[in-house]
Amino acid sequence: xxxxxxxxxxxxxxxxxxxxxxxxxxxxxxxxxxxxxxxxxxxxxxxxxxxxxxxxxxxxxxxxxxxxxxxxxxxxxxxxxxxxxxxxxxxxxxxxxxxxxxxxxxxxxxxxxxxxxxxxxxxxxxxxxxxxxxxxxxxxxxxxxxxxxxxxxxxxxxxxxxxxxxxxxxxxxxxxxxxxxxxxxxxxxxxxxxxxxxxxxxxxxxxxxxxxxxxxxxxxxxxxxxxxxxxxxxxxxxxxxxxxxxxxxxxxxxxxxxxxxxxxxxxxxxxxxxxxxxxxxxxxxxxxxxxxxxxxxxxxxxxxxxxxxxxxxxxxxxxxxxxxxxxxxxxxxxxxxxxxxxxxxxxxxxxxxxxxxxxxxxxxxxxxxxxxxxxxxxxxxxxxxxxxxxxxxxxxxxxxxxxxxxxxxxxxxxxxxxxxxxxxxxxxxxxxxxxxxxxxxxxxxxxxxxxxxxxxxxxxxxxxxxxxxxxxxxxxxxxxxxxxxxxxxxxxxxxxxxxxxxxxxxxxxxxxxxxxxxxxxxxxxxxxxxxxxxxxxxxxxxxxxxxxxxxxxxxxxxxxxxxxxxxxxxxxxxxxxxxxxxxxxxxxxxxxxxxxxxxxxxxxxxxxxxxxxxxxxxxxxxxxxxxxxxxxxxxxxxxxxxxxxxxxxxxxxxxxxxxxxxxxxxxxxxxxxxxxxxxxxxxxxxxxxxxxxxxxxxxxxxxxxxxxxxxxxxxxxxxxxxxxxxxxxxxxxxxxxxxxxxxxxxxxxxxxxxxxxxxxxxxxxxxxxxxxxxxxxxxxxxxxxxxxxxxxxxxxxxxxxxxxxxxxxxxxxxxxxxxxxxxxxxxxxxxxxxxxxxxxxxxxxxxxxxxxxxxxxxxxxxxxxxxxxxxxxxxxxxxxxxxxxxxxxxxxxxxxxxxxxxxxxxxxxxxxxxxxxxxxxxxxxxxxxxxxxxxxxxxxxxxxxxxxxxxxxxxxxxxxxxx
Length: 963
Ligand SMILES: Cc1cc2nc3c(=O)[nH]c(=O)nc-3n(C[C@H](O)[C@H](O)[C@H](O)COP(=O)(O)OP(=O)(O)OC[C@H]3O[C@@H](n4cnc5c(N)ncnc54)[C@H](O)[C@@H]3O)c2cc1C
Ligand code: FES
What we know:
Radius of gyration: 29 Å
Shape: globular
Structural class: alpha/beta
Distance between the termini: 84 Å
Number of helices: 24
Low-confidence stretches: none
Mean pLDDT: 94
Number of strands: 53
Bound molecules: flavin-adenine dinucleotide, FE2/S2 (inorganic) cluster
Strand content: 25-35%
Largest sheet: 9 strands, mixed
Strand order of the largest sheet: 33-51-45-48-47-46-37-39-38
């Protein structure tokens, strides 16, 4: 319904949009979500499981409201403005329309302002004003159509207000002062990746810009904390902020019976705002007890430090009472009930359980700072255990982080409300300006205002404290991860099976891997885990921070040789993994490394009746084996077949026969696991862009056939018939029918489960630190105590040389940091594994519809923390190569990038017993997702039956070459 108000009136031109072909009356200047809500439509789309979804966060963070607009997929209804004649649907088109043109420039534009402010809420605007007034050149980015953030958001352009209230006036004032001070404000512009303090990737009105500011001020605000109760994903259930944006800014309400629940004054304010528009809420359900005498000293503190705000609070309560809106104190909403939309709620309070009819439920149990950019830069964070809990950025009094050129202010760093945000923003803006040598004296008034606002806020939180997370109360059937539809029961089952951390649960269940990047599930998952949460308990921040269109970021980057890492520092998070008791630290075979190479070795050894103990410093499968792109490679890759390749094809050619054998083992593993593991072998195509590449593919194909691999070179017409979605520019391809794809997450977890089913034991969190001979056995010192083993398998992947060194072995194993990009799902476009001759690329569409884009583009490595990181140039270059092959990529958003360390050898594995070290075996390989099963099988056969290992895979080959 559209809302009426005594001073606010519609001014937007009446227009018509179409939703699922139905005409909907809309107003120019309002969002799609507003137009649909006004028409009473709350279900915008269906998830992969068929569940209806609509508006949830209302601020562009959750991506639940994504719709297809005029063929463009992934558009957020809450941020996208309605336009006359627009066609909106929740369904995906067969071929997505381009989201943008690929850029015509050779590289992203670079801008080097004095100060870049990310986020245009009260904190960001205040920082920008302070710095610009001191003379700094300030650029401010905000994703929304107008700055103001949540607190000071303006009225939509569809309406005009003859007498703006105080909150609107604060926003107007901040915007005017920022413009007067000369701040360059870019709206509908977002930072998508923080690669370094002076390398911020952004899309400015759809155009790629790399900002290289002298100072960076992060003020990205907060989103509301998730409230995982039954029915919280139903259309009509949304955050209080989402409903407030509809009501206050867009002047619509999606239903008639509105129930508001959770805690805090925002809920009371929304109830009053609804009354102002003639809608009487059913009730306000407040978890906090009614403030009584015991709360008087908090009230006194509030009165002393912000009497106006206390007055407002009291006035709101009086107003609600007069209007007959019940405020149900000490009461919680325990479920939203309904089928395709909310129809009722269940409450529990002092009078017991009861139901209340409601077709809109607004929920707020506090906020969580938007820490993605700060975390991506490696800035330390602490866990704040209020309610469900959240991370807060460590800063000094001026908002300066541990990185001297980076400030973090407002609710995006530490929760504190609008007044705290404005004061902190101002202090940070002044400090940043001073850093640049500008005259920006400290502002004692701002410090005093900050002290007052902080004290007020503290007193307020004592009255309206989000209740402690009642994790046991989250029923097994409740969806915890909205994006990937993962329930609490699924997570608990994995925890019961031995997983202990969010990163491991993420890989086992996909929870946290959705479009929202875990914003609305990570805290719940972290709390379900056994350890006390900290920064490591939350999913690692990945670029892009939010899904962004791939097209504007497609910039050609030169082909390269990836840098090699020698003995890379182990990732810091390994220390967190608790061990579980093992009955005996003696074993026939100790396998070092719980990646696929180690897990497959353990599986086949255990199957063969040998006692196996897997030693893994982290949880199993957390490194390359789940970070890889899942390509089942059979043909030679571009860099496997070069001018330097010897006539017999060299190590890569000698490895060719292992591919088909390993894929056959993958099928056996899938059958034993009783699931398909995403395995698809519909063939791989390596494409040629020009005649020279085609001639090279012919030579390569001949080499593959020599080694028994089925390989055909296809001409342009045959290629077109086989894979019509590929670019018409391609002249032909090397087609190898045995190639395909497997889901690395499901595959690796299935091998772990099978190995354990066959009796292999896993010692998590056990870092191997030393290995020595002890009579006929090996004594292995680990961070969890000593282990005696008859034989040792070194399957430590890129760290294998470190393990080899412990026994005096010189293993020529290094590592390369590689990246994978995933796009949002689309209907099927290609079935094949796609590569491109002479360029780094691997590309395939998963069963879920998303494309996995990889091919060995390299990432960054921080030797101090062992952290790997995607690089902007690699993302751009990888997307560019991909677009040359698959033009449809221009219609997709890319959702996530991740990195891992791939073992690098000479293009053949190192297998078998080490020379002169009886009982010490190596199992190390590149292309290890493909080859994991076969290298495990060869290792197990060597140990179980003394089977000979092909000399081309043995370590001695390097000695022979040296001689
Ligand atoms: C981004 C990326 C994309 C890739 N794409 C593909 C692809 O599409 N297809 C394909 O076939 N291959 C691909 N690969 C390669 C493949 O993932 C690797 O070859 C394979 O996973 C290696 O398996 P692993 O078990 O040897 O190593 P890892 O999976 O790295 O496992 C090594 C394990 O050893 C543990 N460890 C190390 N040192 C110690 C110690 N001292 N004590 C205890 N534990 C220790 C580590 O914690 C880790 O769990 C890709 C790799 C990356 C990084
Ligand atoms: S809720 Fe979005 S990833 Fe889990």
